[in-house]
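Recap for those who missed Tuesday's class. We walked through two folding examples back to back. For each one, the amino acid string is listed first and its predicted structure tokens come directly after. Nothing is annotated here on purpose, so try labeling regions yourself before you check the end of the notes.
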Amino acid sequence: MVLTGQVAIVTGGGQGIGKAIALRLAAEGADIGIIDVNGKKGEATSKEIRDLNRRAAATAADVANFQAVEAAMNEVVGALGRLDVLVNNAGIEKRAPFLEITPDDWQRQLDVNLSGTFYCSQVAAREMAKRRYGRIVNLSSVAGLIGPIDLAAYGAAKAGIIGLTRAAALDLADFGITVNAIAPGPIETELMLGAWSAEALRERPQHGAIARFGTVDEIAHTALFLASPKSGFITGITLSIDGGALAAGAYMVEKYRRRKAAATE
């Protein structure tokens, strides 16, 4: 188990991708701290981690609030004794056409997705620097790499995370801390399955080179690698886990057209 003896904090670890990452890191030997705005869901994940015979601590906090982040981090480190890995997964998304985005919605998405990632990273890095070792893994999105429809605030925040990842990687390298990002494409989660129409769930996978949704376990596997000691010469990168959609670029439109034509023959 590559993380034996280490402690990892996962924000937004109460459900979806964050929960999958927390359980995967625990399965590889790490004790886990969960910081989630929903305390009940965070504690539920912690119980599953304890069932894996790992220590776990959960605390409720809004990552958009620096003082709350600092208190939550200190609580987890106090309970588990150290900090080696941080996974910045907490995030929100609200769709709206560009002309209809309200200032409050714009600010809230930047506060949670971008500022929250910075706040958690800064507090965690100060702790990691004491031992001159750390791994920070940020969850961005393909929406931060391409122009998303009706997601200007979310896409801007996720693009900001990519820039923050590069800057933090340079600033923190001398403290033995690596900083990398994951940019998922469409991933099959309970929230997505509940929010998308049946038509969207049927059609959207055809918009990638690999014609299916990604899974939370595939994101968790990537996070584990970037969180492990074996990734020590990798820092400042953004790794797209998107089924090849970015690689295809505009050609994906033609690929999709051909698939539709073939299905009707």
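Example two. Treat it independently of the first, because the proteins are unrelated.
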Amino acid sequence: MKLLVTGAAGFIGSTYVRLVEGEHEVTVLDKLTYAGRRENLPGGVELVVGGIEDRELVMGLAEGTDAIVNFAAESHVDRSIAEQDVFALTHVIGTSVLLDAARERGVGRFLQVSTDEVYGSIEEGSFTESSPLDPSSPYSATKAGGDLLVSAHAATYGTEAVICRGSNNYGPRQYPEKLIPLCVLNALHGDPLPVYGDGLQVRNWLYVEDFCRGIHAVLEHGRPGQAYNVGGPDECENIEVVRRILGLTGRDETLIEYVRDRPGHDRRYSLASDKILDELGWRAQVRFDEGLARTVEWYRDNEEWWAPIRSGEYRDYYERQYGRALG
């Protein structure tokens, strides 16, 4: 297939491109915001710099394309609380432009990459694809808006569209504003590890390569108009994740620093993945302990990837967010 993969200079999208580049012809469209980096992509992939809200650009790129895979997103909840407009522009307006291009240019397949956060929080049990959407943050609300547009285009225009909702991803090349890479790098440097509230929030952790395998299975074989949950094999409290990172980096728990909780912080996410297992045979292969050890080792061995981040704008963001400077 000839694929247009949007937002693929970021964490999950670049992992997906690395998975499929030898099998399919890939063009990447990415705005190269703070979390998108050319060096995340393999060398032979064509990169077009631009935003998915740019209608003329998107229409041109969609011509002759077999499928669009939309990873383009502003992905950090904390940033959405401070500045929601850019999230709405990408997640709603940008998705609308991509869907129009898919319809008008005869693109055969459209896949929307989404998140478990569109369902909100769940105290026990797991969300299924029929659970109502109940987002809690500007990030998840705008992602839900994009999902609803995808479903509407499938129903109204017959667009061959599918949605993949992943649980919390982790792995190599994740920008260090997220819990795991932030804490790994802080631990390696001996900096405090900030933990929101009491740290008892529960997340369903999914290794990024497992998510990308699920995405590709849905792209190739998912039923049009359907959403598929792609959940991790293990759930864990945030404070336990931090403790495991300290153990893997040889640090002690005196580095844990509890900070003021995030506004509207969801307490627990959990996805049921029965549908993708039953229909497509997908299941997660990497358990959390193995994946976390791999992730810590990758950051330990790839200072040339993260050193420019920790010495740049990220330092200012970190100080604004946590009230202290990085060491």
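Answers for example two:
Residues 85-104 form the longest helix (20 residues).
The chain has a mean pLDDT of 96.
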